[in-house]
Amino acid sequence: MKLSFYPRLALYVVSVFMVVIVVCFYVTNLLQQRTQEEAEQRLHIGLAEHLVGDNPLLEEGVYDYKALENLFHTLMVLGPNFEFYYLSPQGDILTYSAEPGKVKAKKINLTPILQLVNTDIELPIFGDDPKNLGQHKIFSAAPVYKQDTLQGYLYVIIGGERYDSILANLKNSQSMREVALFMFVGMALLLTVLLILFKYFTHPLRRLSDDMDKVCNAEFDREKLLPVLAKWDKSSTNEIDRLGCGFHDMLLHIDDQFTQLNKIDSQRRALLADLSHDLRTPLASLQGYIETLAINGDSLSQEDKQYFIDVSLKNAKNLKHLIDQIFELAYLEGGQVMLHQESFPLGELLHDVAAKFELDAKQKDITIRVIPNHFEYHVFADIGKLERVLTNLIANAIRHTQPNGSIDLKVTIFDEKLRVDISDTGVGISDKEIAFIFDARYQASNTEKGSLSHVGLGLAICKKLMALLNSDLRVESRLGHGTCFSFELTLAQHT
To answer: Where are the bilayer-spanning segments (predicted)?
Structure first.
């Protein structure tokens, strides 16, 4: 069974808590016991030496082991905390006072005894416990000499068997059980408080997890999600609350993007259908005239042949122009256009573009002016992309301007920017249509026809080109009074 975050966290906390308690209890008990043993050994370290110096049996050397056994018995009655042993110089136990069978060892390791007697060693130091093979206890020891001859060692166990028995009974007493119970209850309460705190702190995280599950179950349907998602406080200092707010904002943003993508997809499909129709029209006309020439070429007069050829060339040009615009728009929308920005004089570019349309303007008696006629402003932009925009805007202006009209290319400077206005005295655009003129395939109802067919891609291309140049193409127009397109360019830094 898979556990959720809080049960897993609670399980880990309880496990770690219990391990920490056990380790702390063990280490504390060990340190307490070691400290107690060191204190007792320091307190009684001279006991054996004093007994050897003060007792006649030990002071003159030992020969009467029975009397020494009685002495040890008397000393144990007076000090139940001690056990007394007399050892040979080799560590053999010669005599002691204990019930038969209690002492199991016959020999004591002399190394700890010699360390205690002959060196200043750090306490506590442990020696063999004669009554428990393999166990060790703190002790006091002193050598027994007769004149200068070593007779043996007085070996005193500190905290003997009776002491251990009494201590064990005390640990099992009622008061000790009460203390242990109190400690257990205290630890249980502490653990409970910790678990409650963890639940309090992890509750927002669970709410966020539930929100994510709801999002998956609702398949990112915004209408289904908004009523059921948790409410988050944006002003909260809790990181989970802020994360929840960010999650909700992200959902709304993604939903808006999905909506926009669906809208763009619908527009693309409609655009593809319209462009297919626009491509089919000149293509069908081109095919028809060429087939006519191929089938009836011998029966046609020279004038008819030339007419059919001229119409076919016109349709071919229209077809190429339309395909070029489609490819250009596709490259712009796909972000596959590279910019080559440089510093150049804007006045020269405006005069060059105006000169390119001089013949077309004269045919309609239209005047093209650059205002002011001479200026030295340099801009930093992609000259090719900017020329493409100016060419398209001026071509549109000529197409929609009546004879004896004018087109002005006006340049003004403000806030380290150059504003370029392309205004005409043409037919203008109605207020209802002006908001849609930058959409691909949109053509105003009063669009003038020219020598080439137009499918409403030119202004969409200009808008995207100006966006690449970090500028915005804007339009102002009054129906019957003309139109003005404007954009801003960055002034080049003078060197």
So the answer is: 6-27, 179-201
Q: What is the CATH number of domain 341-490?
A: 3.30.565.10
Distance CA 7, CA 161 (A): 49
Task: Return the ∠ at Cα 147 (arms to 141 and 148), rounded to 5°.
Answer: 70
Does this chain's domain 239-333 share its CATH topology with 341-490? no
Q: Residue 21 and residue 322: Cα distance in Å, rounded?
A: 82
Tokens of 370: 């650059």
3-state secondary structure of 135: coil
Report strand pairing: 406-414 vs 367-371. Answer: parallel
Per residue of the chain (495 residues), what is the pLDDT tens digit? 556 655 766 777 777 777 777 787 778 777 877 887 777 878 788 888 888 777 776 655 555 667 777 777 777 766 677 888 888 889 898 888 777 778 888 899 999 988 888 877 788 889 998 888 888 888 988 888 877 788 888 888 887 666 666 555 555 565 556 666 777 777 788 778 777 777 776 677 777 777 777 676 666 666 666 665 667 666 776 666 777 777 777 777 777 777 788 877 776 676 666 556 566 767 777 788 788 888 877 777 888 778 878 888 877 877 776 777 667 666 666 666 777 889 999 999 999 999 988 888 888 999 999 998 888 889 999 888 898 889 889 988 998 899 999 999 999 988 778 999 999 998 888 888 888 787 765 555 545 555 444 456 778 888 888 888 889 999 998 888 899 999 999 888 765
What SS3 string covers 461-480?
A: HHHHHHHHCCCCCEEEEECC
Fold category of 239-333 in CATH: Helix Hairpins (1.10.287)
Write out the H or E segment, with its range, that includes residue 32. helix 5-44
Domain 45-172 has CATH 3.30.450.20: yes
Contact residues for 376 (Cβ-Cβ < 8 A; gap 6+): 345, 347
Element (H, E) at 59: helix 56-59
Q: How would DSSP label each residue in 363-387? A: HTT-EEEEESS----EEEEEHHHHH
**Angle at 412 (CA atoms; ends 402, 388), nearest 5 degrees:** 60
pTM of the model: 0.45
CB–CB of 230/241 below 8 Å?
no
Distance (Å, whole) CA 114 – CA 250: 79
373, 336 in Cβ contact below 8 A? no
Which among 375, 321, 367, 324 has a CA at the least distance from the CA of 349?
A: 375
Q: What is d(CA 476, CA 170) in angstroms, rounded to the nearest whole number?
A: 101
